[in-house]
Amino acid sequence: MTTSFVSAINQATSGKDLSEQQTSELIDAMLDGEADPDEVAGLLLALRQKGEAVNELVGAARAMRRHMTQIPHHHEVLLDTCGTGGSGSGTFNISTAVAIVAAACGVAVAKHGNRKATSHTGSADVLEVLGVPIESDADAVARRLKQDGICFCFAAKLHPAMKHVASVRRKLGVKTLFNYLGPLCNPAGATHQLLGTPTLDTQSMVAMAINQLGTTRSFVVHALDGQDEVSLEGPTRVIDVDATGMKTYQWTPSDFGLSSASREALAAADPAESAAIIRHIFDGKPGPCRDTVVAGTAAALLLVGKTNDLKEATLLAAKTIDSGLAKAKLSSLMS
User: EC number(s) in its UniProt entry (predicted)?
Assistant: First the structure.
């Protein structure tokens, strides 16, 4: 092992956090292919055992951003609904459906995502079943964003340097620092994020990292029923991050003017079932799945300033689905 990795592993093993700069340089070495597998595995496991820190997350994100393939655009407001995953809730792809409905409401969207890791179905998996091309290169993704106001940024395609750590991550088979980085490294540089997290600790850490990395405004959410989405089963804790700092509050189903919906009613066993649920929602089928997408979209519309009232945003989201605009937006992505 090189001296820098040995020193960092020893430091983390002793319970001391790495600095932002130190982490950034080590992740650079990994993504440049300059670190051997033992160094990568040793550092990732040491950080996991210690517990990843905000400065480490920020440093890693800055390094990963330097290595990603960027998507050019001219949108002053650009939304991403990518979350960290890891809740184990087993729901259909709520944030993917929310991204499509938000785009149908006139919000520019660059949905970042990947294939499933800790869930039954990842955003790339469900979009593929829905007939949306996911393997597009950067130029095609940029054209899609310009043409349709929404694009899918496939992490496996637009973060090519991750190939240098992929085998180690698969072999480890546990969550590591890299599992938190997806939402912090949107290839199109999203200005607004509706970002779901699986635990209160992760929510706080990611929100503090975003506060340092900077976005125009982000809602980092965690539902108290365990979902990494805006939930209608109970309260959703929100950390609202903008240039002025961070504010924390809660939403309940009544804030949206919607009925409660249990997590069990949102279950999808695989990408095919998730895709079927999304199609039914866009066809106008009522029920808890639709209501949950409406609530998530309402949060996104509030986030980007389409409206300053959550119930008004809820009505706009529902109207957009009922009018067929969400279905049409999905169709445009399939072409």
Answer: 2.4.2.18
186 is in an annotated binding site: no
* pLDDT tens digits for range 98-145: 999 999 999 999 999 988 766 678 899 999 999 999 999 999 999 999
Q: Is 169 annotated as a binding residue?
A: yes
117 has binding-site annotation: yes
Per the annotation, does 149 bind a ligand?
A: no
Is 112 annotated as a binding-site member?
Answer: yes
Same domain, 42 and 91: no
Shared domain check, 106 and 135: yes
296 labelled ligand-binding:
no
Instruction: Tell me whether residue 157 is annotated as binding.
Output: no
Is 111 assigned to a binding site?
A: yes
Torsional sign, CA 67, 145, 127, 119 = positive
Q: Is 95 annotated as a binding residue?
A: yes
Nearest partner of 62 among 34, 11, 27, 32, judged by Cα: 27
Is 231 marked within a binding site?
no
- How does the average pLDDT of the chain come out, rounded? 95
Average pLDDT over residues 71-82: 97
Q: Which domain holds residue 41?
A: 5-67
* Pair 169, 118: CB distance under 8 Å: no
d(CA 312, CA 308): 8
Residue 223, annotated as binding a ligand: no
* 55 marked as binding residue: no
Q: 93: annotated binding-site residue?
A: yes
Residue 73 in domain: no
Is 96 annotated as contributing to ligand binding? yes
Under 8 Å between Cβ of 293 and 81: no
Q: Does residue 74 fall inside a structural domain? A: no
Identify the pLDDT of residue 55: 97
91 annotated as a binding-site residue: yes
Please tell me whether the overall predicted TM-score, pTM, comes out greater than 0.85 for this model: yes
Confidence of residue 322 (pLDDT cuts 50, 70, 90): very high
Pairing of strands 150-154, 192-196: unpaired
The domain that holds 34 is classified in CATH as 1.20.970.10
Selected residue with higher pLDDT from 73 and 3: 73
| 228-237: average pLDDT | 96
Locate 210 and state its tokens. Answer: 């975003």
